[in-house]
Amino acid sequence: MDTRRLLKPRKIGYEADPILAKQNLNELVRVLNKTKIKIARANDRHNSRVHRLELSPHQTELRRLIKKWMESGPNLRRMFKQEPELADRTKNGRTIFWPTGTGRGYLDWEAYPSESEPESPEVLALCDFMTLITNPDWELLGGPCVRCGDYYLKRARRRTKYCSRKCSSKETAISSTRSWRADQQERKISRAQECIDEWCNVKRREAWKTWVSRKTGFTDRWLTRAEHNGKINPPSTPPK
């Protein structure tokens, strides 16, 4: 058997500079996320809080493009088929050569608007988007985070839900707290309904809410709200 036929074909073409590719992704993540500013508390410069500014039109459009891109698969052919105008606008660009300290160099492709197209948030977002889809490490872009909504760089090419362990832990804690509260609420409703049924089966001079409140410790306000929300069934007939 001719072993040469089993060899994989040599790669032909150009590769992006891996260092530059990583820098471009880091810059893209910075552009995507809300700007954070520290605000010092009055009469206490050592303690400050972080405030997030609203997304700019440029950031909003860039997030829209990336959402469309992710929803497509990602599949650029499918995305461009859905938005032919976007496909036409991606044809303008230029190639830049980056020499290195070795015997080889790298090529980088950069999108830029045509001379007749004014610089706008949409055009800037398109240029940033083209930086992403021509980046060899595009699969490392993750987000938005389920908890904080930030985009981030993943360590591996697999799907993740959170930008950090901190967000993951907080979301897990919140989910556990919600489950515990829902369970406690169900227990209260069940206990209240049991007392209502008991009030209906025995002779009581007190109003049912007063009697149930005294038996369970639940406030009259809580019982009224549960009744209005359809959580408990009040007595439909007077006691025997």
The number of helical segments is: 8
- Principal-axis shape equals elongated
Strand content: 5-15%
The assigned structural class equals: alpha+beta
Low-confidence stretches: none
The total strand number stands at 6
Helix content: 40-55%
Within the largest sheet, what's the order of strands? 1-2
Per CATH, what is the topology of the largest domain? Jann2411-like fold
For the sheet with most strands, the description reads: 2 strands, antiparallel
> What is the CATH domain class of the largest domain?
Mainly Alpha
**H/E element string?**
HEEHHHEEHEEHHH
Alpha-carbon distance between the two ends = 97 Å
What does the model show?
The chain has 240 residues and is of the alpha+beta class. It has two domains: 13-163, Orthogonal Bundle (Jann2411-like fold), CATH 1.10.3300; 171-228, no CATH class. Helices cover 46% and strands 14% of the residues. It contains eight helices and six strands, in the order H-E-E-H-H-H-E-E-H-E-E-H-H-H. Strands 1-2 form a two-stranded antiparallel ribbon. Strands 3-4 form a two-stranded antiparallel sheet. It is elongated, with a radius of gyration of 30 Å. The N and C termini lie far apart (97 Å). The mean pLDDT is 81.
